[in-house]
Amino acid sequence: MSEYSATVTVALNSDSQPNRSYDIAIAAHSLKNLGDKLLEIGLGKKSKKVLIVSNPVIYKHYGETVQASLSKAGFDIAQLILPAGERFKTANSLQRIYDAALAHRLERSSVIIALGGGVIGDMSGYAAATWLRGIDLVQVPTTLLAMVDSAIGGKTGINHPQGKNLIGAFYQPRLVWVDPEVLKTLPAREFRSAMAEVIKYAVIWDRELFDLLTQCDRLDRLRDVSSKLLQTILYRCAKAKAEVVSKDEKEGNLRAILNYGHTVGHAIESVTNYRLYNHGEAVGLGMLIAGAIAVDLGIWTADDQAKQVTLIVKTRLPQTLPKDIDLDAIVDALSTDKKVEAGKVRFILPTAIGSVTLSDRVTSDIVKQNLRQILA
Ligand code: NAD
Ligand code: GLY
């Protein structure tokens, strides 16, 4: 990945709000240049204080490089290392970020840097959105999922004990700084799981990406994905998300398509107590079901569904559910989805490769029937 660099802009201009556009800058070995980049985009002009939020695993690998880079650029750094994992995406961790912000005397013009995956990114984002009613946020994603999805687009938040991501805000970062080299230390399961989101973008938005993925023999390990394909994945997914977010920042309508596979996926995650599948694995299953439902409704061909299944197989994502899983519980869980409107679950269904539609025509029976088809 030595020479590669690319930039995608999330364009956020409207008459009512000043320009809040920002770049997703993708460049190999760029972690060491973060400090200079912050100065270049005007951060650190008034306050030089930054708070890096990370977790022990990520900080051990990359903390020193980031700190050295910021130090060289003259920033006054504090860091907060939170425990790793979704179960720490809590009000308690958020409180610890506020405590660190207070201890380091962050000001309105100071910066919070999220160095990590989606968990660190979402929590730090929400802290930045709310501390002093909003301070600058920079996302430095270290998982493939965060690079292609969670660090982009301004959804921030924490979990409530009763449900995922129930507390949050839309708050855009000033910069998303992607160094793909950090993926070399990412655990294989995290890579596979994020590939489900990559397949999602290909199905909902980007036929060319779909074709490129189709040409690949294996998609389950970083070492089997060429540098060129990885670059293409990072660029095209960032571009897809940027385009969708630019058109519909606060999920009035279009942005909902980014939840393709997530409706059933979330229900499966919840019914299996977040233990059996991680997020991407559940999304993979959700896409299988959404595709099968679309075939039943006659809006997507069996041939395209087979192509989608092939990508999921090549990524070694799960394709079956345990035979004793409670299908009624999955269907019940659908009705608590955040995307329910006027009591109706809105499904995102594929219509062609690169294109989806929103539908409230999906009955519990169709869902259950298709879930039954993938019981082990
Ligand atoms: P994560 O943040 O939990 O990271 C996964 C694991 O990988 C962690 O154990 C972490 O320590 C480790 N890790 C991270 N980077 C590493 C690296 N470079 N080398 C070695 N280990 C590394 O998981 P995730 O998949 O990045 O994010 C999931 C979260 O993102 C969920 O909370 C989900 O709700 C959220 N999310 C948010 C959005 C959004 O738009 N804001 C979108 C999708 C998902
Ligand atoms: N991950 C869904 C979204 O950002 O809207």
UniProtKB/TrEMBL annotation:
Subcellular location: Cytoplasm
Catalytic activity: 7-phospho-2-dehydro-3-deoxy-D-arabino-heptonate = 3-dehydroquinate + phosphate
Annotated residues for binding of NAD(+): G118, V119, I120, G121, D122, T142, T143, K155, K164
Source domain of life: Bacteria
Keyword Nucleotide-binding among record annotations: yes
Coiled coil: none
Annotated 3-dehydroquinate synthase C-terminal domain residues: 195-340
UniProt entry tagged with the keyword ATP-binding: no
Co-factor requirement: NAD(+); Co(2+); Zn(2+)
Molecular function in Gene Ontology: 3-dehydroquinate synthase activity; metal ion binding; nucleotide binding
Pfam families noted in UniProt: DHQ_synthase (PF01761), DHQS_C (PF24621)
Residues holding Zn(2+): E197, H262, H279
Signal peptide annotation: none
Domain 3-dehydroquinate synthase N-terminal: residue ranges: 80-192
Enzyme class: lyase
Cofactor: record remark: Binds 1 divalent metal cation per subunit. Can use either Co(2+) or Zn(2+).
EC assignment: 4.2.3.4
A GO CC term assigned to this protein in UniProt: cytoplasm
Keyword list, A-Z: Amino-acid biosynthesis, Aromatic amino acid biosynthesis, Cobalt, Cytoplasm, Lyase, Metal-binding, NAD, Nucleotide-binding, Zinc
Biochemical pathway: Metabolic intermediate biosynthesis; chorismate biosynthesis; chorismate from D-erythrose 4-phosphate and phosphoenolpyruvate: step 2/7
Gene Ontology BP terms: amino acid biosynthetic process; aromatic amino acid family biosynthetic process; chorismate biosynthetic process
HAMAP family linked to this entry: DHQ_synthase
Functional description taken from the UniProt entry: Catalyzes the conversion of 3-deoxy-D-arabino-heptulosonate 7-phosphate (DAHP) to dehydroquinate (DHQ).
Family classification: Belongs to the sugar phosphate cyclases superfamily. Dehydroquinate synthase family.
PANTHER family with a match to the protein in the record: 3-DEHYDROQUINATE SYNTHASE, 3-DEHYDROQUINATE SYNTHASE, CHLOROPLASTIC
Protein name, UniProt field: 3-dehydroquinate synthase
Organism: Pseudanabaena frigida
